[in-house]
Amino acid sequence: MEFCSTGQLTLHFDYQKPCGNMVLAFINSLGTDFRIWDAVTTRFRAAGFGVLRYDKRGHGLSGLGAVPQSIDDHVSDLAGLLDYIGAEEVIAVGLSIGGLIAQSLYVRRPKAVRALILCDTAHRIGTTRSWNARIDAVNAGGIAAIADDILEKWFTPSFHGKRAEELDGYRAMLTRQSPDGYAASCAALRDADHTELVTRIAVPSLCLVGDQDYSTPPDLVKSMAELIPGARFEIIKDAGHIPCVEQPDDVFARIAAFLETNALGKDRYG
Q: What pLDDT digit, counting tens, does each position of 88-128 carry?
């Protein structure tokens, strides 16, 4: 296990250093830790890419920090971690709230971010009312009170029916997150509207979504892709909100092909 202090809190991370300067930085979703990327990052590591994974604040083994929190706070955490490992160039791969963090990281550091992979995310997710309702539910009954509804959105009916052991494991991951961290990230999502921000993205961008994602449905992700100049939009079959768990081979293949098409392949990593 690796940890670093950003000055505000301690982050838990996992890092494979590239031979070159560029790093693939994977940002996890609400209610998860960096292990959701295991199957995808294993493939990138085997292919020789530099890989960074970390638990965002309030999740996994990372600290919570002060509340209330914003997406900018999450961006500051990631920027501090990138400085800590000495990453000069980064391809940000963000899922759900991780996608909003990736979008803002580009605006914060446009010269360092060479491309964006935006998975099951959008320029704005949910409504003030829906996020406040979720925060109230977590504050009243803990994450377990909303776990069934969340897991229905995370994974397809096929996953629920055929991969019961994994489903139990992801339920444990969700319900063992910090309720305070979960609620703080819900508030950050509630207050984030990147509708104008994404129109300023000027790097290659790939927007991926599971065909059965009911948290950020394909039409919503497509609407974000249409706002980003030149963005590519692709749908992953037989996947819900976390395709990197349900369809890791497909996610890896699509990202790898996108990097190769945009001359950001393994040769740029050393």
A: 899 999 999 999 999 999 999 999 999 999 999 999 999 99
Write down the residue that tokens 């994977």 correspond to.
26
Distance, CA of 22 to CA of 48 (rounded, Å): 12
The answer to whether the beta carbons of residues 236 and 254 sit under 8 Å apart is yes
Cis before 248? omega within 30: no
Q: How many CB atoms lie within 10 A of CB 24?
A: 27
Single out the residue of 142, 159, 126, 132 nearest to residue 31, CA to CA.
142
- Pairing mode, if any, of strands 113-119 and 51-54? unpaired
Distance, CA of 126 to chain centre:
16
Spell out the residues 6+ positions from residue 32 whose beta carbon is closer than 8 angstroms to its own.
Answer: 59, 170, 173, 174, 177, 242
The DSSP output letter for 97 is: H
Q: Rounded to a whole number, what is the distance in angstroms from the first to the last CA of the chain?
A: 25
Q: How far is CA 156 from the centre of its chain?
A: 19
For 247, the 3-state DSSP assignment is coil
Sign of CA dihedral 12, 74, 99, 20: negative
CA dihedral 170, 174, 177, 182 (to 10 degrees): 150
Give residue-wise pLDDT tens across range 244-259.
999 999 999 999 999 9
Phi and psi at 211, nearest 5°, equal -65, -15
Give the dihedral sign, CA 158/161/163/166: positive
pTM score: 0.96
Name, in order, each residue with C-beta under 8 angstroms of 37's C-beta and a sequence gap of 6 or more: 26, 28, 53, 93, 244
Which amino acid would we find at residue 89?
E
